[in-house]
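Re: that backbone. Tokens:
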């Protein structure tokens, strides 16, 4: 399946002033001075292409700072005038869209807490009817690819063709090193379904702390994401929101200097020849792998028939336990990650169970006739 979105390439609406494309600015606009001073230092690095700032902030609990509100648009306009940087804000309802458009905001983004709610996204899309403005859509808080796709479709259906997705990580019940789990496989799936859709990564919200941001930023670029949105504050120690994850403009500049921008296709023909040769070897091995898995499945089916004819249960826990243990340690001896080997086997086992279930059910169907 491919996603049928009508999308203009990123470089037709956003020309990065520096590689990689970085959108930066404070988590929240707090005061005019804080926003202007941060914007000034960011612009002076020469490495920032767009200035961001949150002015309407969805907060988990009431009583927290919920953004400075519409006055922040005036400050953003001043920052744009002073630095020449295009500006972007998060919008979470139709009124936000109207105010942001009236203020001349260059790019809008829909936040993760809005993407989860189709009513909210539709309200935003309705307010965007007939408007030509770029919109970036963050993934929903929960790992639900359809919700993310649905939000992109709603905005696209409203006529917005300057569209991008932002990968900001997903909430998880389990504690981990990240504030939001990157779950890259979801972003990769989105890119596979819609290769023309630009995807930008938001390492600040994935990490939740400054220390991991360089690692996640590099990883995002290596996963072919087209840009980064990183929070930056003139003095993160006194930031009103997300203090732990914001970087000073100079720390951000340093981080950008240490990133390596890699290309998907090698420019050097010697490198492409070598890659092609190695890929041929992979192709051969993959063919063998598939053949062997198919052979294994036909034996599984024979066992299934035998179980059906002798009233033996499909699942054989002892046998399965033994397989997992033996194969995982064999894999380890061959330098395969134990978790990887286990996951791969679990996938195969699930398919064995599915096939044997089908075989069992065939008998029931026949005997009932
Ligand atoms: C193939 C069998 O059935 C199931 C599938 C297994 C497998 O895929 O290796 C192992 C144990 C069973 O849960 C079996 O009983 O041996």
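Recovered sequence:
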């Amino acid at each position: 399946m491919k996603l049928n979105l009508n999308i203009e390439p990123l470089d037709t609406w956003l020309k990065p002033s520096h590689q990689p494309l970085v959108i930066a600015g404070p988590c929240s606009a707090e005061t005019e001075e804080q926003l202007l001073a941060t914007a000034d230092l960011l612009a002076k690095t020469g490495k920032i292409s767009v200035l961001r700032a949150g002015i309407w902030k969805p907060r988990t609990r009431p009583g927290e700072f919920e953004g400075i509100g519409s006055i922040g648009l005036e400050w953003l306009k001043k920052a744009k005038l002073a630095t020449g940087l295009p500006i972007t804000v998060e919008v979470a309802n139709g009124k936000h869209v109207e105010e942001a458009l009236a203020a001349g905001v260059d790019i809008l983004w829909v936040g993760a807490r809005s993407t989860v709610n189709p009513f909210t996204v539709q309200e935003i899309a309705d307010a965007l009817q007939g408007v030509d403005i770029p919109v970036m859509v963050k993934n929903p808080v929960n790992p639900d690819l359809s919700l993310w796709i649905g939000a992109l479709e709603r905005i696209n259906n409203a006529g917005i063709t300057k569209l991008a997705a932002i990968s900001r990580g997903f909430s998880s019940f389990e504690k981990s090193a990240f504030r939001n789990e990157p779950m890259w496989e979801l972003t990769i799936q989105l890119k596979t379904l819609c290769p023309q859709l630009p995807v930008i990564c938001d390492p600040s919200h994935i990490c939740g702390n400054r220390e991991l941001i360089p690692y996640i930023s590099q990883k995002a670029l290596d996963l072919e994401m087209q840009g980064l949105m990183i929070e930056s504050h003139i003095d993160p120690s006194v930031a009103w929101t997300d203090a732990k994850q914001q970087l000073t403009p100079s720390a951000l500049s340093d981080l950008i200097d240490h990133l390596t921008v890699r290309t998907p296709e090698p420019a050097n023909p010697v490198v492409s020849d070598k890659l092609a040769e190695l890929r041929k070897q992979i192709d051969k091995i993959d063919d063998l792998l598939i053949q062997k898995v198919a052979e294994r499945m036909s034996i599984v089916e024979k066992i299934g028939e035998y179980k059906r004819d002798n009233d033996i249960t499909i699942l054989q826990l002892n046998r399965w336990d033994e397989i997992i243990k033996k194969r995982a340690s064999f894999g380890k001896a061959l330098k395969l990650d134990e978790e990887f080997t286990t996951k791969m086997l679990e996938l195969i086992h699930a398919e064995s169970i599915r096939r044997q279930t089908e075989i069992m059910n065939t008998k029931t169907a026949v005997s009932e006739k």
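The chain has a mean pLDDT of 95. Residues 300, 303, 315-316, 319-320, 323, 348-349, 352, 356 surround ISJ (CB under 6 Å).
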